[in-house]
User: What shape does this take?
Amino acid sequence: MGREELLKNVPMFSELGKRDLERLAKLMVPRTIKAGEVIIKENDQAAGFFVINSGKVEAIRGADSADPQHLATFGPGDFFGEMALFEGFPRSATVRAVEDSECLAMTRWDFMAEMKNHPEIAVGMLPVLVRRLRDLDARLAE
Assistant: This one.
């Protein structure tokens, strides 16, 4: 699967056109991660977003504690760290490779620079982000 296709499957990029997906795909940097390697560490400053090309990773809260909490397992086509594209708050979990994995990574700085040069990317993402907020608001109201 090509980079544009991987990005198209990420919900917040799903409404973007081909040209915008191509622009963002050019920002993606391949990373090879060995099984057991930490990709992002809980409480570190958030700086990037990842799409998994192959392999498997897991998200864990309190990885260094006596009682770590398994949050999720991600595989090919899945993504994590997307909020880091918009803000640099500390990471809420550790993500480590369960098996040898290939990811594509995009930094917040590259993403923000691309949005400043091509604001139509932000305009295309807004409806998806607002839908996500509305869905969350509706779930919290239940």
